[in-house]
Write a structure and sequence with these properties.
The chain contains 13 helices and 14 strands. It is α/β, with parallel strands linked by helices. Strands 1, 2, 3, 4, 5, 6, 7, 8, 9, 10, 11, 12, 13 and 14 form a 14-stranded mixed beta sheet that branches. β12, α9 and β13 form a beta-alpha-beta unit. α1 packs antiparallel against α12, α2 packs antiparallel against α3 and α2 packs across α6.
Length: 503
Amino acid sequence: MHIPPLSLAFLPTLPLFLGLPNLSVFNKLTPAKLEASIQLDNLLGHSRNLWSFANLPGANSTRAFGTKGYNASVDYVAKLAEDHGYRVEKQTLVYPATTFVSNALKIDGVDVAQTEIKTFQYSASASVTAPLILVPNLGCESADYENLNAAGKVVLVLRGDCTFVEKGELAKAAGVSGLILRNNVAGPPVASRLKPTFETNPPALSLSQSAAAPIVERLNAGEEILVTLIIDVLNEQRYSDNVIATSKAGDQNNILVVSAHLDSVPAGAGINDDGSGTATIAELAVQLSKFSGLKNAVRFAWFTAEELGLVGSRYYVEHLASEEQAKIFANIHLDMTASPNYIIGVYDANNSTGKNTGVPAPAGSASIEKLYQLAYDKLGVNYTSYAFTSGSDYRPFLDAGIPSGGVATGASGKKTSYEAELFGGEVGIAYDHCYHQACDNLDNLALDAYLWNAQASANVIGQLLTTDPKVILRDPPRLVKFQGGKRLFNYAVDLGKEHLEDL
């Protein structure tokens, strides 16, 4: 069911200049001016609003797609953009969704702590007590279930090699009454999903590595274990919106798309992932409205359902008519720009680390990478390369042959000693220790990185909007001498399981 939009009475009062004649004609855009306009207090104002939406009555502390918190976020950025002079479109799509009600896991009658379990999106509901059996290998082949007599039992399967979708389908085909997927890395249980066709999935929980270890030891020793699995979910088709806001100024045949994803995971409010990107492009939209002299048009896009597999961005790109797609000359995407144990990762358009996956970045992407490097050089901030994968909403643009770039500060990967030399922080700790968890809140933002990345993005966007795309994407300005110390072009950042938790 589509949740009605909330009242917009909670929106902050808009700047008084909106009631006056348009003064932007006297303030011509330059990259330096746009960069200087970005202030931390304004970024945090957007962050606080996003946090408040997740904590509205009935929002359940989340901004997951199509929820009350998400819809409030949609209304917020749409009104903000509209009031600052952009043409705004809400692009509605329908996609399967899971509302988590409750879960429990008992091993021989003893409760497993709630912090050690998570329900998979698209899991079936269940209340079952049955024998627990260990699936050999990784549960990626039907042969792994041969001679197990798994029908009616709960199976314990190790993460790895194949997707959770495949593991779920094989378990369902074996007739299990429940599936427990144990993590293969330290930390909390993975937050992930099965196939978004509910009838193909068994009841499924994720279990942390530490909680699973003694259970596996007992099963390997030949002990019989009785498990109680309780999962209460509501699976439904849910409406949700992309928000697309296009400037009225600039050449409408040369459009720069600046994007972030607006949704969080169900576990939390997503104030870093991707509230930081959402807030940054919201503030960029506000500040750009104060300038004249845009040679090219800009389109801000807040995408839905990224956390379910880039659903909103794929829908947007794939539903563009070919002539409309051809008008987009580049995409700047910002996803997680304020991780507390951050690195500054510029997307690696030329695959200098050899870690990129998928369709290679098209011509022009390397120029965007160099523009970012130049922007950080001017700020005196260290940076490194960050792989293009299938992990965020830049991927549909790359697949469509649209030059892309941006910056990220890391997700579940662990910081190395070399990175700590460059950026400070804690070695061996995740870049964002609250990644996809309830603690991704207002205390989960590195304020220095938040501001630097927004300012660097403003500089890059300012250049892309004031220069002929055919020129700047072919021949960007040269890098200046680095002021801050070190920069790494060929160093591979640990992406961890960043937005790839289907594996």
